[in-house]
Specification:
Keywords: Glycosidase, Hydrolase. This protein has 799 residues and is α+β, with helices and mostly antiparallel strands. 19% of the residues lie in helices and 32% in strands. Among the domains are: 231 residues, Sandwich (Immunoglobulin-like), CATH 2.60.40.1760; 111 residues, Golgi alpha-mannosidase II (Immunoglobulin-like). A nine-stranded antiparallel sheet has the order 5-6-7-8-9-10-17-16-12, with no helix packed on it. It has a nine-stranded parallel sheet with strand order 31-30-28-25-21-20-19-33-32. An eight-stranded antiparallel sheet has the order 1-2-3-4-18-15-14-11.
């Protein structure tokens, strides 16, 4: 690693004493007598960037991760000097930089330590490649916990782990295997009930050690580039995650159908096979919005072509599927077959768009089509060309979405499974080798794909999904967790991976339901679908080599369970859509691990299984075979069992009975949960009522519901509906207040209200201070109230 190991004897170098500093607006630069410069930039009162150079000057400041469209600003900045250190103070934190060795420490305003250097910044000259191996070590506090880091197949709390970031095609990966497909060098620290974050924006191969080598030392380092990291102060984990998500960017709102259930397989062909799958979904009344075509739809695996033997008239087929509510999504890989008769290859060759080796020849590697060259997506001209290639697929044939695979980039039949490190990249005018560009290659491919799909799908919204990604990729694409396996262990891994991705800025993520490799039992598939419907991206996908994995590949009981839970997802679409709105507007993660939900409760710090779906639904999957119940932790507060409506006080671990067709689901007291009627696909039905399930709570609780036209861009012009509900429960009264924002008029006219957990019998109901006729016996029989959607205050009055 970096200390007390063989690296120490290779000549670690350190900053010496500070000899000068300069202050310019939001930045302070400190210079040492051995030419190290530390540039501290205050972006917000709680967001500070630390950038080091060892050569006396900085290279061009460029990042693919940072969202440059988002502005920052601080309220207060003061620089002072004492005998031993300089101090930078904002309205949230104090940062002290030692004069003798440039080590730094960060405190809150009450002088409680948040984060401090152990050895701090140091480096080792890389004689093999040039430049530096840059290193940072921090002192870790007793009891400190660590979270985040994106796509990792390990415990949610990273304490005691060492992890590696290098985007890798890791087929059939195992628990704790490193590295995986995505690179998100962002972690959250928590100690003394206070949270902070570190984002190490370095695209070289990076490593993180969370007290693995030494008990009270956390460190991170990279094989090249700069020591360039952002410190984010909470003190709430919610603040850390939201600030990081603002820093690296948020997606635009997807079309609502993209949040439906999707079905995929390697591969559905010919057309008759795809049509059979579509017809079976509708016959069994299992909702489904999208069907995927894997590489076999292409002619010889050539991107942007169709195999006319399997799909004789793609435009007609896509249109016929659309008539029955199915959107077609197709795969596009980065490997372009070397074929002089292939138009895409010829265009790229003529324009010099392929990646080159150090000595000039094009990078050549074997992928599905055979020998291929690979576009350099770090070149803006290549991205623009690539985007234009989607015209036929999207605007002419009618494909609705694109998924990018093999973009780590993955190369077959080579030891390291990817490009040689001497491959050259444009890097948006900052030429570099593949050592620097590897981790962002997949993101730049997804970026180019996104701009192409968006251009030709307009005025509808684009849908893109990628396997490989770097921090900030969420601005362009959704993702899935790669080639998992049909095992119970992988069900456990999927649960944690998607939670971790959610608090790492990449919320629109899911796993291959049922496992990509091998074949799940009916029980495993059922338990996986029960979890998968609570993931933002919801898709069954499998390798055809291992058998069928459609819901009807199993017995009737599994079909019924699949239908039940996919129906539940479609009912909860307005709730899920609202989660997404809060994600893109406020940077609030859609899934929340219990530690995020209540970091002050130490019992949440090592919980893996339970998570909060949105703001008010607690989900705990069944992760072992033959289970008709499990122990789980109920967070503090009052909760209702979704299946029984029994209430329970949280803050404790309990045993929860379940059935094969259930998993533990609880709803927060006071919540207003919106529901649609079950549809076979988004937009199938016109309905005149929005269901509101309202769970009684003594006290106040706020809930929100976001809706718009479900596609298109009118929502950006204010044509949306944002409902804020506040429930106030008293001993013999429930008050429901409603405030509406936005210019969108929802197509329904009434709210169908189901009141759950009322501690009293209803005597009267008032809508906007006007009593309405009401017979409690009728309410008991129908279990709902119908109220016009224009109300502002509803009083339920007890006897």
């Amino acid at each position: 690693m970096i200390t007390n190991t063989e690296l120490e004897y290779k000549g670690d170098l350190y900053p010496t004493k500070i000899v000068s500093f300069e202050h310019e607006v939001d930045s302070i630069s400190f210079h040492t007598d051995n030419s190290v410069i530390l540039k501290v930039t205050v972006l917000r009162d709680s967001l500070i960037r630390f950038r080091f150079t060892t050569k006396g000057y900085f290279s061009n400041d460029f990042s693919y991760a940072i969202d440059k469209s988002h502005s920052h600003g601080y309220n207060f900045l003061e620089i002072s000097e004492v005998e031993d250190y300089y101090q930078i103070k904002t309205s949230k934190v104090k940062c002290r930089i030692q004069k003798i060795d440039m080590r730094l420490s960060i405190y809150d305003l009450e002088d409680n330590i948040i984060l401090e250097d152990e050895l701090g910044f140091h480096w080792e000259e890389s004689y093999e490649y040039g430049g530096n191996i840059v290193k940072m070590s921090k002192a870790s506090k007793d009891g400190e916990c660590f979270y985040g880091l994106g796509d990792k197949a390990t415990q949610l709390n990273l304490k005691g782990k060492r992890l590696e970031n290098f985007a890798t095609d890791q087929y059939a990966f195992q628990k704790d295997q490193e590295p995986l497909y995505k690179v998100v060098p962002f972690y959250i620290g928590l100690h003394n009930k206070k949270s902070y974050g570190i984002f190490f924006d370095n695209t070289f191969r990076t490593y993180f050690d969370f007290c693995h080598e030494r008990r009270n030392v956390t460190s991170f380092w990279a094989e090249g580039g700069e020591m360039n990291y952002y410190f984010i102060y909470g003190p709430e984990m919610q603040d850390v995650v939201t600030t990081y998500t603002h820093l690296t960017g948020k997606p635009e709102l997807p079309p609502l159908w993209a949040l439906g259930y999707h079905q995929c397989k390697w591969s559905y062909y010919p057309e008759s096979n795809l049509k059979e799958v579509a017809a079976k979904f509708r016959e069994l009344k299992i909702p489904c919005d999208a069907l995927y075509l894997d590489i076999d739809y292409m002619e010889g695996f050539r991107c942007f072509t169709w195999n006319k033997e399997y799909f004789q008239d793609p435009k007609r087929m896509v249109a016929e599927l659309a008539e029955d509510g199915f959107k077609t999504v197709v795969i596009i890989d980065p490997g372009i077959k070397i074929d002089k008769e292939y138009s895409v290859y010829k265009e790229a060759l003529e324009n010099d768009y392929f990646c080159k080796r150090a000595d000039g020849p094009y990078m050549k590697g074997k992928v599905w089509p055979g020998e291929c060259n690979f576009p350099d997506y770090t070149n803006p001209s290549v991205r623009e060309w690539w985007a234009g290639l989607f015209k036929e697929l999207i605007s002419e044939i009618g494909v609705k979405g694109v998924w990018n695979d093999m973009n780590e980039p993955a190369v077959m039949e080579v030891p390291n499974k990817t490009f040689p490190m001497d491959v050259r990249h444009d890097y948006d005018g900052n030429p570099c080798s593949h050592r620097k560009a590897h981790n962002i290659y997949g993101t730049q491919m997804a970026r180019a794909t996104y701009h192409g799909v968006k251009r030709f799908a307009y005025p509808k919204r684009p849908f893109v999904i990628t396997r490989s990604a770097y921090a900030g990729a969420q601005r362009y694409t959704s993702s899935w967790t790669g080639d998992n396996v049909a095992t119970w262990e992988h069900l456990w891994i999927a649960n944690i991976q998607v939670q971790r991705m959610s608090i790492s800025g990449m919320g629109f993520t899911g796993s291959d339901i049922g496992g990509f490799a091998e074949q799940p039992s009916g029980e495993l598939y059922a338990r996986w679908i029960q979890l998968g419907v609570f993931h933002p991206f919801c898709r069954t996908h499998s390798s055809g080599d291992h058998g069928d994995q459609e819901p009807w590949a199993f017995d009737e009981e599994v079909i019924d369970i699949t239908r039940k839970f996919v129906n539940l997802r479609y009912q909860l679409l307005p709730y899920l859509y609202t989660m997404f709105w809060q994600y893109i507007e406020e940077g609030i993660p859609m899934l929340k691990p219990l530690v995020y939900f209540d970091q002050e409760d130490i019992h949440t710090h090592y919980r893996n299984d339970e998570f909060i779906f949105g703001n008010q639904i607690l989900v705990c999957p069944i992760l072992e075979p033959n289970s008709l119940g499990r122990r789980m932790y109920i967070p503090r507060g009052q909760w209702y069992n979704y299946w029984t409506n029994d209430d329970i006080k949280g803050g404790k671990e309990v045993w929860v009975d379940t059935k094969f067709d259930q998993i533990p689901i609880f709803v927060k007291a006071g919540a207003v949960i919106p529901k649609y009627p079950v549809q076979q696909y988004v937009g199938e039905l016109e309905f005149d009522e929005l269901i509101l399930e309202i769970y009684f709570k003594e006290g106040k609780e706020k809930s929100v519901v976001y809706e718009d036209a479900q596609d298109g861009y009118d929502y950006k012009k204010g044509r949306y509906s944002f409902l804020s509900f506040q429930t106030t429960g008293k001993e013999k009264e429930l008050i429901i207040q409603l405030h509406k924002e936005g210019k969108y008029d929802t197509p329904y006219s009434k709210y169908k209200i189901n009141l759950i957990g009322l501690p009293f019998k209803i005597n009267a109901i008032e809508v906007d201070n006007v009593k309405i006729p009401f017979e409690y016996q009728l309410y008991q029989e129908s279990n709902y109230l119908l109220v016009d959607k224009g109300f502002t205050e509803l009083h339920i009055i007890g006897e």
